[in-house]
Design brief:
By secondary structure, the protein is mainly beta. The chain contains 1 helix and 10 strands. A hairpin with a 7-residue loop joins strand 8 (108-112) and strand 9 (120-126). It is globular. The N and C termini lie far apart (58 Å).
Length: 146
């Protein structure tokens, strides 16, 4: 059995829901969520429409570490996992990371944050929430005279 993944779901309208999912299908029209909150039995399980969502954050913990500020910038020498991109959502939020899908799905794409030690393990960016996608140039190589 596939383990449950901790996720934080961000809606296009600003709502945030924390919970667990299993068998995430990025090409599906819905995501199945078991809420992490103290909800009633009927509210514990939900089926969320992907078209209503901005992004799904796969996280280590629901609370994060308030004393730790994850690195948002790329650093020369980082192990590259794909294209370096900057995503600006319709609400103005900006995230950076390595786009893992060379051929993104119509519904969205996976992004690895620049800080492998941060609380976000992976982000699924849903296309309908993206205002701009900027490909970050590769770091300039230094040329030395021989």
């Amino acid at each position: 059995m596939e383990p449950l993944s901790k996720i934080v779901v961000r809606y296009l309208d600003g709502r945030v829901v924390k919970g667990y999912t299993q068998h995430f299908d990025p090409d599906g029209s819905h995501i199945h969520l078991r809420r992490a909150s103290t909800a009633t039995a009927d509210e514990m399980r939900a089926e969320l429409r992907m078209e209503d969502l901005k992004a799904i954050f796969f996280v280590r913990t629901f609370d994060g570490n308030p004393r730790c500020r994850a690195r948002r910038e790329f650093i020369d020498g980082d192990k590259s996992y794909g294209d370096k991109v900057e995503v600006t959502f319709g609400d103005g939020e900006v995230v950076r990371g390595y786009r893992m899908d060379p051929y993104p799905r119509r519904s969205g794409f996976f992004l690895l944050p620049p800080d492998p030690e941060g609380n976000n393990v992976m982000i699924f960016v849903i296309s309908t929430g993206v205002e701009h996608l900027l490909f970050c140039p590769a770091a300039p190589t230094s040329v030395h005279d021989a």
